[in-house]
Amino acid sequence: MNKPVMTKTKKRLLFIWSPLFLLYILSLITGFMLQTTTYEIYSDKIDDEIRIVLITDLHNTVFGKNQKQLIGRIKDSNPDLILLAGDIFHDYGSRDGAHMLMEGIQGLAPAYFVTGNHDLSNREISLILNEVTSYGITILSDSFEEIEIKGNRIIVAGIDDPVKGYNHKIEMQRAFGELHEKGGYKILLAHRPEDINYYTEHPFDLVVSGHAHGGQVFVPFINRGLYVPHQGILAEYAGGLYEHGTLTHIVSRGLSIKHPSPIIPRVNNRPELVVISVKSAN
Ligand SMILES: [Fe+2]
């Protein structure tokens, strides 16, 4: 009996598709592996270094038994401030992942929360906000607080997600107009990175965002997201550090491996916990 012979075309197809298939499998595996990304930034408004942990877009994902892996990473980062910048919850389903996280970080450092579009789309949002405050986490809803950390004067401000037809530009003018008169290092929690042009109208030193999920596929070399909601294809603010004059904008690629469905893998885009070390520029 004659052995089946592979045609040239079949060989070519196998040559092309095998590496792509392997890359897909590799992405499926690494797309579940938690990564800690650290940024170092400098300011003349800071005397003693502060360490900020930024958590976004968890969508109730659980890392390790009872969220042990994620909580361990946060504790190892020795945070002076914890910022939860939206979509910690999801529109529906179990909230256990978010609860385990909030319980695990309780009392570690002052913690602040703003809503993301998926938090606000949950029909039980009022209950969710009560749950957040029950862990000692402060909700910032077009508001700010002045605090002192290691002798540094810090202003932490936060805005709600605009999903319900709210206008960031107008609301921010009302909420943060008086910040021009105040001293201190000013931080804004804003879930949406694409509204950066509104944020730069205010005297913030640091803005932290999420929402983009790294564009699901984070394109190497150009560091853009393949597709980001509300930004489109090959979007700029998919994840990373961006400078706008004196304002530093840090966008986390987020922690979700549940949303969108894990069938669409995170490619070159591991779920990310962000640590920001703000040091004295003097
Ligand atoms: Fe979002």
Provide a quick synopsis of the model.
With 282 residues, this protein is of the alpha/beta class. Helices cover 24% and strands 29% of the residues.
Structure description:
The chain has 282 residues and is an alpha/beta fold. Helices cover 24% and strands 29% of the residues. Strands 1-15-2-3-4-5 form a 6-stranded mixed β-sheet, covered by helices on one side. The longest helix is centred in the N-terminal third of the chain and has 23 residues, at 8-30. A hairpin with a 4-residue loop joins strand 10 and strand 11. It has a single domain (8-280), classed as Purple Acid Phosphatase, chain A, domain 2, CATH 3.60.21. Bound molecules: fe (ii) ion.
Q: Would you list the SSEs in sequence order as H and E?
A: HEEHEHEHHEEEHEHEEEEEEE
Coarse shape = globular
How many helices? The count is: 7
Give the class from helix and strand content and strand pairing: alpha/beta
Biggest sheet, spatial arrangement of strands = 1-15-2-3-4-5
Q: What is the fourth-level CATH superfamily?
A: Metallo-dependent phosphatases
The chain-level mean pLDDT equals 93
Strand segment count: 15
Which CATH architecture is right? 4-Layer Sandwich
Assigned CATH class: Alpha Beta
Rg over alpha carbons: 21 Å
What characterizes the major β-sheet?
A: 6 strands, mixed
As for the number of domains, it is: 1
**Fraction of residues in β-strands:** 25-35%
Ligands, deduplicated? fe (ii) ion
Cα separation of the termini: 82 Å
Which regions are unreliable across 5 or more consecutive residues at pLDDT < 50? none
Could you tell me the CATH topology label.
Purple Acid Phosphatase, chain A, domain 2
